[in-house]
Design goal:
The protein has about 450 residues and is an alpha/beta fold. Helices cover about 45% and strands about 15% of the residues.
Length: about 450
Amino acid sequence: MRDGMRAPAPGAASRGTAARAVAAVLGAGCTLDEAFANLPGEPLPEADRAQARALAFGALRWHHRHRALIARLSDRPLPRNERLLEALLSVGLFQLHDARQPDYASVSATVEAARWLGRPRAAGFVNATLRRMQREGEALRAAVLADETARWSQPAWLIERLRQDWPAQYAAVLEASLCPPPLWLRVNTQRTTVADYLAALEAAGMQGTTLAGVPTAVKLATPVPVAAIPGFAAGAVSVQDAASQWPAVLLAPAPGMRVLDACAAPGGKCAHLLEQAGGTLDLTALDIDAARLARVGENLTRLGLTAHLRVADAGQPGSWWDGVPFDRILLDAPCSATGVIRRHPDIKWLRRASDIASLAARQLELLDRLWPLLRPGGRLLYVTCSLLRAENDAVLERFRAGHPEAALVPATVPDWLLPVPGGGWQALPGTSDTDGLYYVLMARQGG
């Protein structure tokens, strides 16, 4: 029991915890990870924690549609300050939407969660709302799907931006963003081969598939907890989306090169660069967040790799650069993260249309500040996990207008990458079951 709450009924604690996390995202504007980290009281047992996270992620993934359904299910609108009740109803509606959850158990446990949360007077309302959804769900869903926000469960501003930027692909992108993400692994070819690792998966009763153009990528047919991934603890593999593995392929660092990973956390691309060069790079990894940079160090330690880790703002090189130019620079710039919404559905509630201009300005600033650190003939790879052209080729166009010595570097790319007219390539969510990333590779001409 915590905070004066009654002892939880079976299933109530995980649903109540999920509702608390969703309410924190909706009301306080924090990420789901932050919400779970800051929940009060004793942590749940591991199985309940996993269920709470799955319910919270599912509820947020569909919450735009859930809001429309709640409005039709309720006789009167919920008060604006009723974030917790709204979140609990969303958790309940997600369970009714998910065929793996038995309806009777889902409704019962969600009603009990209202009591566990200290809201016993709301239990009857939760019960009546979810029971009505059971009876009238098909008709109610058909009614709300007329609205694009509910249909795609995305904010209206983002739907319109995607329609403008990707008129032929936006519907598929929105559809893919509603699907849970796959589990991609990066095979550490310093310790094993992809063929041997696929055999190890098969021996463990698992199946994996590869992706053209990314020789280290393996997708598990069925996601499992990290602790259950064969070879993970020993450093044979890391968790990393296949699209995020493409930057190391493009940059192709050679042993002994001096390399900068300008915004390194959580460290997947940094580690991959080192693996590509047999661990022999002179690599500096920066991040402005000390806690996130510590995660980079932990990942490198597990893999037996080393780099120079610096807590620093990449846009202020005077505070950290020693004056020796780099052969390769990776700028994985802060962005709207609209290409990874299926992995982080809280982004739909944390990003605003008004954020895009300031993000683009920051991206251009970072390019301008880091470009002089590149040696003549060196290469810089600009990457975002955004789908919006305002952050991608529009930033590239502005940068190259002020830097005529920045030459686009051509590359042979797999067919799941789309060429962008201004230069570079875009991976779209769902095309090959990867995240959505933008890439452009530039070389510095002249002496």
